[in-house]
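To: structure subgroup
Subject: Chain for Friday's discussion

All,

I'm putting the inputs and outputs inline so they're searchable in the archive.
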Amino acid sequence: MDALTSIERIWQFTKAIEQAAAVGEWERAAVLVDERSPLLMSMGAKQPPAVVAQLREIMAIDARIAEAAQEAQRTLGVEYQASMRATRNANQYQRIAQF
Protein backbone atom coordinates (compact mmCIF):
# COMPACT_ATOMS: atom_id res chain seq x y z
CA MET A 1 0.00 0.00 0.00
CA ASP A 2 1.50 3.35 -0.98
CA ALA A 3 1.74 6.35 1.34
CA LEU A 4 -1.22 8.19 -0.20
CA THR A 5 -3.51 5.17 0.13
CA SER A 6 -2.34 4.59 3.72
CA ILE A 7 -2.82 8.20 4.73
CA GLU A 8 -6.33 8.19 3.27
CA ARG A 9 -7.27 5.13 5.36
CA ILE A 10 -5.65 6.69 8.42
CA TRP A 11 -7.61 9.89 7.73
CA GLN A 12 -10.88 7.94 7.48
CA PHE A 13 -10.15 6.22 10.80
CA THR A 14 -9.25 9.56 12.38
CA LYS A 15 -12.50 11.18 11.27
CA ALA A 16 -14.46 8.16 12.58
CA ILE A 17 -12.60 8.41 15.90
CA GLU A 18 -13.37 12.12 16.04
CA GLN A 19 -17.07 11.44 15.41
CA ALA A 20 -17.22 8.69 18.05
CA ALA A 21 -15.56 10.96 20.59
CA ALA A 22 -17.91 13.84 19.73
CA VAL A 23 -20.92 11.73 20.73
CA GLY A 24 -19.23 10.14 23.75
CA GLU A 25 -18.77 6.69 22.24
CA TRP A 26 -15.38 6.23 23.87
CA GLU A 27 -15.37 2.45 23.55
CA ARG A 28 -15.93 2.75 19.78
CA ALA A 29 -13.22 5.41 19.58
CA ALA A 30 -10.78 3.08 21.36
CA VAL A 31 -11.56 0.22 18.96
CA LEU A 32 -10.95 2.52 15.99
CA VAL A 33 -7.67 3.73 17.48
CA ASP A 34 -6.55 0.10 17.84
CA GLU A 35 -7.42 -0.52 14.20
CA ARG A 36 -5.67 2.64 13.03
CA SER A 37 -2.46 2.14 15.03
CA PRO A 38 -0.87 -0.51 12.77
CA LEU A 39 -1.42 1.75 9.77
CA LEU A 40 0.29 4.65 11.51
CA MET A 41 3.14 2.43 12.66
CA SER A 42 3.67 1.16 9.12
CA MET A 43 4.29 4.67 7.79
CA GLY A 44 7.95 5.22 7.05
CA ALA A 45 9.91 8.24 8.23
CA LYS A 46 10.32 9.70 4.75
CA GLN A 47 6.96 10.87 3.41
CA PRO A 48 5.88 13.32 0.73
CA PRO A 49 5.08 16.83 2.02
CA ALA A 50 1.33 16.31 1.47
CA VAL A 51 1.38 13.20 3.67
CA VAL A 52 3.42 14.97 6.37
CA ALA A 53 0.91 17.85 6.35
CA GLN A 54 -2.00 15.45 6.77
CA LEU A 55 -0.18 13.59 9.55
CA ARG A 56 0.22 16.91 11.37
CA GLU A 57 -3.49 17.54 10.99
CA ILE A 58 -4.20 14.06 12.35
CA MET A 59 -1.95 14.78 15.34
CA ALA A 60 -3.89 18.00 16.01
CA ILE A 61 -7.20 16.11 15.88
CA ASP A 62 -5.79 13.43 18.19
CA ALA A 63 -4.70 16.12 20.66
CA ARG A 64 -8.21 17.61 20.69
CA ILE A 65 -9.74 14.16 21.19
CA ALA A 66 -7.34 13.42 24.07
CA GLU A 67 -8.33 16.70 25.71
CA ALA A 68 -12.02 15.86 25.29
CA ALA A 69 -11.40 12.40 26.76
CA GLN A 70 -9.72 13.90 29.81
CA GLU A 71 -12.63 16.29 30.30
CA ALA A 72 -15.12 13.42 29.93
CA GLN A 73 -13.15 11.43 32.49
CA ARG A 74 -13.21 14.34 34.94
CA THR A 75 -16.94 14.82 34.42
CA LEU A 76 -17.64 11.13 34.92
CA GLY A 77 -15.52 11.15 38.07
CA VAL A 78 -17.56 14.02 39.50
CA GLU A 79 -20.80 12.22 38.61
CA TYR A 80 -19.51 9.01 40.16
CA GLN A 81 -18.62 10.77 43.41
CA ALA A 82 -22.07 12.41 43.52
CA SER A 83 -23.72 9.02 42.95
CA MET A 84 -21.65 7.44 45.71
CA ARG A 85 -22.66 10.23 48.13
CA ALA A 86 -26.31 9.78 47.17
CA THR A 87 -26.01 6.04 47.76
CA ARG A 88 -24.42 6.57 51.19
CA ASN A 89 -27.15 9.07 52.09
CA ALA A 90 -29.88 6.65 51.00
CA ASN A 91 -28.25 3.85 53.01
CA GLN A 92 -28.02 6.11 56.06
CA TYR A 93 -31.68 7.07 55.69
CA GLN A 94 -32.61 3.39 55.36
CA ARG A 95 -30.76 2.53 58.60
CA ILE A 96 -32.35 5.42 60.49
CA ALA A 97 -35.83 4.74 59.13
CA GLN A 98 -35.68 1.17 60.45
CA PHE A 99 -35.52 2.37 64.06
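Points worth raising on Friday:
The helical segments are 3-22, 26-41, 49-97.
Residues 49-97 form the longest helix (49 residues).

D.
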